[in-house]
Design goal:
The protein has 170 residues and is of the alpha+beta class. It has one domain (2-168): Nuclear Transport Factor 2, Chain: A (Roll), CATH 3.10.450. Helices cover 42% and strands 29% of the residues. It contains 5 helices and 6 strands; from the N terminus they run H-H-H-H-E-E-E-E-E-E-H. A 4-stranded antiparallel sheet has the order 2-3-5-6. Strands 1-4 form a two-stranded antiparallel ribbon. A hairpin with a 2-residue loop joins strand 5 (139-148) and strand 6. The longest helix is centred in the N-terminal third of the chain and has 54 residues, at 2-55.
Length: 170
């Protein structure tokens, strides 16, 4: 009887260790899945937003990456300072500095560095007083994301700090 009891304890320990390993593997997979989705939403969404603002085109694909409430409230989309210019060239630089998402979270934050070091454009109107397009708000930004219908969407952008001039040079 003693041998049978020790054998059952041995099997129980192995089953518990195996169950813990399986749970950790599932948790790691779900975290990686969410973080990868957030990374894609942030990089693609922010790039499309900048392109839409600079080129002055309404981009319906933005609804895939941003909440409807944010698109209606975005100051650059609604009061576009680049509408008076024909933008000919720009280079978007973006780096995701930090992001994390637990599988049960519905709202997360990501920290990015976004810069457009040089914007080349000309005025739409020859009699326009300002001849060069304004510079982009280069800096570190906090991107707020929400999970809606199983998909991550950008729900807000908070400007945190400016980048050094040396970081924005080409």
């Amino acid at each position: 009887m003693n041998i049978l009891l020790r054998f059952v304890q041995y099997l129980a320990k192995k089953v518990i260790v195996l169950a813990i390993i399986v749970c950790l593997a599932v948790l790691a997979t779900l975290i990686a899945y969410d973080c990868a989705n957030i990374y894609i939403v942030v990089t693609e969404g922010m790039t499309l937003r900048a392109t839409s603002i600079l080129e002055g085109q309404e981009n319906v694909v933005l609804q895939k990456f941003f909440t409807q409430a944010y698109l209606k409230a975005d100051p650059l989309m609604n009061n576009n300072v680049y509408n008076d210019f024909i933008i000919q060239d720009y280079n978007i630089k973006m780096r995701v500095k930090w992001l994390w998402a637990w599988p049960w979270e519905e709202r997360v934050k990501a920290v990015i560095e976004e810069s457009i070091p040089k914007i080349v454009g000309k005025p739409r109107d020859d009699e326009q007083p300002v001849k060069t397009p304004p510079s982009w708000q280069n800096g570190e930004k906090i991107v707020l994301l929400e999970k809606q219908d199983g998909h991550w969407k950008i729900a807000g952008i908070i400007f945190k700090s400016s980048l050094d001039r040396s970081d924005t040079q080409e």
